[in-house]
Amino acid sequence: MKPVTLALRGLLVLAALMVLMPLVWTLLNAFKTNADLLVSTPKLIFSPVWENMDYVLGRRSVSRALVNSLVVCSYAVLLGAVLGVPAAYVIARMKNRVTQEAQFFALSLRFLPPVAVAIPMMVIWLGLDMYDSRPALIITYMTITVSITIWLSVPAFERVPIAIEEAARVDRLGPYAVFFRIALPVAKLQILSAIAFSFILVWNEFLLAMMLTTSRAKTLPIIASEMSQLGMSVPWGILNAAVVLLSLPPLILLALVGTGLNTAFSKKSSE
Predict the structure, then answer these.
(1) Listed residue (59, 51, 57) closest to 30, CA to CA
(2) What is the pLDDT of the chain when averaged over all its residues?
(3) Model confidence at 229, in pLDDT bands (50, 70, 90)?
(4) In the prediction, which pLDDT does 1 show?
(5) Residue 146 belongs to a domain
(6) Which residue intervals define the domain ABC transmembrane type-1 in the entry (predicted)?
């Protein structure tokens, strides 16, 4: 094995360890008592306890926040995909001033500071008596998911060969059939990645949820933040258990998407 290849593999292993170490350490701390956590030398050998997880899973505010996060993220990502994917296809195939301005507008939504979105949205939802509600969060997060879906899906559709679509039109396929039967299957891997990225971004979002909720529609990041604001009385074991619960859905989603992408690429390489 060449020294350069060996060095690159070593760097990859080191990078993987740097990424995994905080996750593994948080998982271990979730099963420690405060006595095991509040020591000068971190304990690698300890007697695991379930009380932290039991407290988090049994707390009503956490279960409500978990349901809120799942409902809000699922609807925001689903509606963002339903609106964003067809819009991305139109932008990729119809190159004119209108589509270029639409693409710029979608990108500008993505790069706006969250506070620039939160303040006008808060005024709107207060005026409509929808403040601190799931629909308000879903519609607000749609501004994020639609822009991200368009941003990441346009290059995917641009890589679909136009010759394939023209051949489909020769076979008398209409525009909807060309989109659903030709373009969408070819670009599905990149689109799935865009949807997964949207879900993770919305799931971890904090500032908008903090400014648009007070009690009923609180999400998991808000509840986890409240647990960390107790000063010296912070229940570190419970906080780590809450972080583990917060991290599970994105990790599971990434694992599923990664497995699907690896399977698809391995099939392509074997053909």
Answers:
(1) 51
(2) 84
(3) low
(4) 64
(5) yes
(6) 66-257
Task: Write b or e for each residue in 209-228: b if 16 or more Cβ atoms lie within 10 A of its Cβ, otherwise e.
Answer: bbbbbeeebbbbbbbbeebe
Which residue's entry shows tokens 């969408």? 184
Q: Report how many domains make up the chain.
A: 1
C-beta of residue 106 within 8 angstroms of C-beta of residue 83: no
pTM over 0.70: yes
Residue 265 inside a domain? The answer is yes
Mark 78-101 as b/e (b = at least 16 C-beta within 10 Å): bbbbeebbbbbbbbbbeeeeebee
Which amino acid, residue 69?
S
Question: Running DSSP on this structure, what letter comes out for residue 112?
Answer: S
| Residues above pLDDT 90, as percent of the chain | 20
Higher per-residue confidence, 128 vs 243: 128
With respect to residue 177, please indicate whether it lies within any of the assigned structural domains.
yes
In which band, very low, low, confident or very high, does the pLDDT at 170 lie, cut at 50, 70 and 90? Answer: confident
Query: Domain residues for 148?
Result: 24-34+45-270
Decide if pLDDT at 66 tops 70.
yes
Question: Which ranges of the chain does DSSP label H, i.e. alpha helix?
Answer: 3-29, 34-37, 51-58, 60-93, 97-111, 114-127, 134-158, 162-170, 175-178, 184-186, 188-204, 207-212, 220-227, 236-270
